[in-house]
Amino acid sequence: MVHELTTSAQFQNLLDSKDNLLFDCDGVVWEGDSLIPNVDKVLKHFRALGKRIWFVTNNATKSRASNKAKFDKMGIQCEVDEIFSSAYASAAYLKNVLNFPADKKVYVIGEKGVEEELESVGIKYSGGTAPEDNVFIDLMDFSSITADPEVGAVLCGLDMHINYKKIARGFRYLRENQVRPGEPCLFVATNLDSTFPTHGSVYPGGGATTAALMYCAGKEPITVGKPEKAMLDSIVETYNLDKSRTLMIGDRLNTDILFGVNGGIDTLLVLTGINQKADYEVENPVAVPTYVVNSLGDFAVLADKA
Amino acid sequence: MVHELTTSAQFQNLLDSKDNLLFDCDGVVWEGDSLIPNVDKVLKHFRALGKRIWFVTNNATKSRASNKAKFDKMGIQCEVDEIFSSAYASAAYLKNVLNFPADKKVYVIGEKGVEEELESVGIKYSGGTAPEDNVFIDLMDFSSITADPEVGAVLCGLDMHINYKKIARGFRYLRENQVRPGEPCLFVATNLDSTFPTHGSVYPGGGATTAALMYCAGKEPITVGKPEKAMLDSIVETYNLDKSRTLMIGDRLNTDILFGVNGGIDTLLVLTGINQKADYEVENPVAVPTYVVNSLGDFAVLADKA
Lengths: 306, 306
Hints:
- The structure is a homodimer.
- Chain A is an alpha/beta fold.
- Chain A has eleven helices and 18 strands.
- In chain A, helix 3 links the parallel strand 5 (52-57) and strand 6 (83-85).
- Chains A, B: Substrate binds at residue 226.
- Chains A, B: Its EC number is 3.1.3.41.
């Protein structure tokens, strides 16, 4: 039974029951470069009520610093350590959980955000935005798909410069390389989102630009971003949160809402992004939210009253 | 029970039982640009014995005419109508089986071979090798992912110029377009090979460069190439072949051998390409050949005796 929130009393009741609010960004706070109406006012009101806020985004094209710049530009208060992006979480996961060796390199199929976060935790990398990896190779010319025994992991995120050379290099490393003697090259994905919403439409996401490598290698990556619970566990542990007083707010059933379900916290679906009510009203939905509201901006009615 | 062929008597017995020989090319006849030793002599001997020969290849980067040029260069006799490539078969399938409308266009994610075969059957196309589709777009700049209501199908094959713009355009057409009123845009793949062998290694295949679109669209294409039986049915019907006197010869269990199994003909696995004996000696192998031989070149012993 999904609770549909439409009245200010319902909005207030939900807020009274939660101290910690985790927000997805795309489709919740903004849509591409446009703020969802009234969300700035709503977030300010939540802060005024003393709510703790984190932004949990699968967007791996930007570092946390670049993400903050977007919040700044949109006039929304946000500190760097309130941002948990899948790029940062992946770098931290490689470093802290997978104990990635200091003498090895990560081969990046992804954007600058991934590179910056690897740098921030002191991990060496190749690929990514390097000019030599952002080219089209001639048909059947494999001369540039050279070996690099230093590569110990392939890390994939949304890459709008995905190309055959990157796929073939990643494939070669996954087949031939080792992260440590006897341990095969690691395969990690920031997220496996099939699409993401922006500019009034949806476009192929990080899962799509990772899928080519998954398909030829016949391997599934370790996935750090939503809906996997690595990021949620990290936030809950770092900040010692009471899960019963924590709410995940998102627009996608198969990432945001499933992330909350997997992590054992309540969830709020907003209808300003990918999914609509019909998507969970089917037989065997991918995930069912605890609450649903048309838009995060609808909470503005509370700010107007305050 | 797989019959392992090692003696010239075994080679002769197999040949005596078959009139029609279907050959895969990569890993059987050649490996990249190198002929498998003695295969030229073997094929000449088969022709001298009056065997009918077809080359059945998932390689969609070349048209049949370009494929023939490769045979010519390698000094192997071959007529254009002895070549069934997945590019040609896909074009013919769109035209004859799917009745692709004359006023619609196919969006190509693939190489020149696909374009040439579409041309050969009179189907209009866009994408493919067009310069505007072979570029990297800037991060989050979707301005060039424009609508084109004329597109009624997306046809994918191995594309060494795969890029985000092609994936995003293909995705848009699959979501928005129709092939006929009320019928969604068609999604066809020349083949879904995960890899292909060349230059002494293996590289990502047509399935890998199609996987990105499959993943974001959440759709499986109609697949024309091996192991689907469309090409086999077409050859058997066109040439009125006796299936019991027909043999498929290939190096891959999951394409060539499964193609023969799906089509109800005997198969011969050669060990000069992707798969080895250990690959079918597992529990639940993807396909089991009728016969196995180290190399097609081993049949040269018969030519030497003749």
